[in-house]
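Late entry, written up from scratch paper. The run itself happened at the end of the previous shift, but nothing got recorded in the book at the time, so transcribing now.
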Amino acid sequence: MPLDPNQITKRPIETSDMPFLQHLYGTTRAPELTTVDWTFEDKAAFIAQQFQAQHHHYISYYHDATFALLLLDNQPIGRLYVHRSPSEICIIDIALLPAYCNQGLGSFLIKQLMAEAEAHNQKVSLHVEPYNPALRLYQRLDFQYIEQNGIYYLMCWQPKSTEQENT
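Output as recorded:
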């Protein structure tokens, strides 16, 4: 039975969510870790270190962002980190457990942000690695490639009214 995206709820992350968030982060790095000849312990230590560095970066540089845990039936299934400014909604990070991917949930969440941006005449931006499968989702949702920043593509979606003002 397909999931109803309207059943997804959000709440601010809490300190007690860190083990889940680290596990979730690990699932996003699992494909690349299959290519290295490390022990399970080495991979776990790498994930823990990288998660802590990422989390520290996000809360330091986006201290006023919304850091939301995504829940289904009160069980955590993902995260959605968003920074809002007067002209832009920046999707800092969106991640779902693998069992919940490719079911339209990510698309649903991003479309909600796009509707919010359109209502406030803002753009939506995000960074994505070129090999990330989510790149296809962003392209389907009409995000446009802007530039490459290190290993990431900066992509942006703008409501039609904003596009016309910028031309």
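The chain has a mean pLDDT of 93.
(Scratch paper discarded after transcription.)
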